[in-house]
Amino acid sequence: MNQVVIKSEQDIEKMRVAGRLASEVLDFITPHVKAGITTGELDRLCHDFMVEVQGTVPAPLNYCPPGHSPYPKSICTSVNHQICHGVPGEKLLKNGDIVNLDITVIKEGYHGDTSRMFIVGEGSIAARRLCQLTFEAMWRGIEQVRPGATLGDIGYAIQTFAEGVGYSVVREFCGHGIGTTFHEPPHVMHFGQPGTGLTLRKGMIFTIEPMLNIGKRHIKEMPDGWTIVTKDHSLSAQWEHTVLVTDDGYEVLTVSQGTPPKPAQPSRTT
Ligand code: MF3
Ligand code: CO
Ligand code: CO
After folding, report:
1. Residue 84 belongs to a domain
2. Tell me: the pLDDT tens digits for 11-57?
3. Residue 160: how many CA atoms within 13 Å on its side-chain side?
4. CA distance 107 to 57
5. Which of 84, 151, 169, 247 sits between 20 and 30 A of 220, alpha carbons compared?
6. Cβ atoms of residues 98 and 237 within 8 Å
């Protein structure tokens, strides 16, 4: 099956619950993201919150797509030049680090997938700008979503914004359909041409999760078989939401009390 699933109203209600729960894990962990904690401790705190408080299943744990070893942890923690799928471990966070925490929970068989950037301590101007503009790039993509728009419209909005402010867009990883499976069609590229690719229809649910690098776009996989880093070791940032196509636009499903609001107006980029 390579068809994009159109979700029913019952599916959508379950996806709202899963999306909120994923976002609430990020709310829960936020006060713990401080200098001196290890990424492994963040993983354990999130794991216990998901399993014991929420009654959710951490989708990454033992996730094993073709050609991979089972993912060994419950969340992804990608620090500084790590782009995505950073495996939690002994790494100690220090002031000035930037870290993406990517959470996917399963509740009653349905997945919610979301990530945010955290800055440890104050952070450099360059790091803060990257995190802020990557957030805005995600929102440029989200705001394209409506019935009749295409996946190319989303990719084009993200790519032109990102490259316009001097960053590169990672090509090897993309957003994805999501529902009772973690990753399903379609692939949601973060680059592209307007008016091309799949036409969006009401009831589709997919993630938008751009990865932007200060340096070049090229990637390298680490020997752990999961962690992806920038080849030039430049800083990288990512934000992710799970989004539903509605009658006349979009609904972000991965929302909770602590979700950062969408940018009020296009921010200055110089
Ligand atoms: N949450 C990631 C995504 O946004 C996927 C992580 S897969 C894992 O698609 F195995 F690395 F956890
Ligand atoms: Co995702
Ligand atoms: Co994710």
Report:
1. yes
2. 999 999 999 999 999 999 999 999 999 999 999 999 999 999 999 99
3. 11
4. 7
5. 151
6. yes
Concatenated DSSP letters for 57-84?
Answer: EETTTT---TTSPPP-SSSEEEETTEEE
Q: Is residue 257 part of a domain?
A: no
pLDDT digits (tens, 9 = 90+) for 254-268: 999 999 999 987 655
Residues spanned by the domain of 36: 9-252
3-state secondary structure of 38: strand
Pairing of strands 110-119, 82-84: unpaired
Q: Whose CA is nearest to atom 12 of ligand 1?
A: 60
Residue 176 corresponds to which amino acid? H
In whole angstroms, give the CA distance from residue 89 to residue 42.
9
Q: Is 71 in the pocket of ligand 1 (CB under 6 A)?
A: yes
CATH number, domain at 119?
Answer: 3.90.230.10
Asked whether residue 265 is domain-assigned, the answer is: no
Q: Which two tokens stand for residue 205?
A: 């649910």
Query: In sequence order, what E strands does 16-144 have?
Result: 57-58, 76-79, 82-84, 98-107, 110-119
Dist CA 241 CA 244 (whole Å) = 10
Count helices and strands in the chain by DSSP H and E runs: 4, 15
Rounded to two decimals, the pTM is 0.97
**Nearest listed ligand to the Cα of residue 177:** 2
Q: Is residue 153 within 8 Å of residue 218, measured between CB atoms?
A: no
Dihedral, 264, 22, 180, 192 alpha carbons, nearest 10: 40
Closest C-alpha residue for ligand 1 atom 2: 102
How many domains are contained in the chain?
1
Atom of ligand 1 nearest to the CA of 102: 1
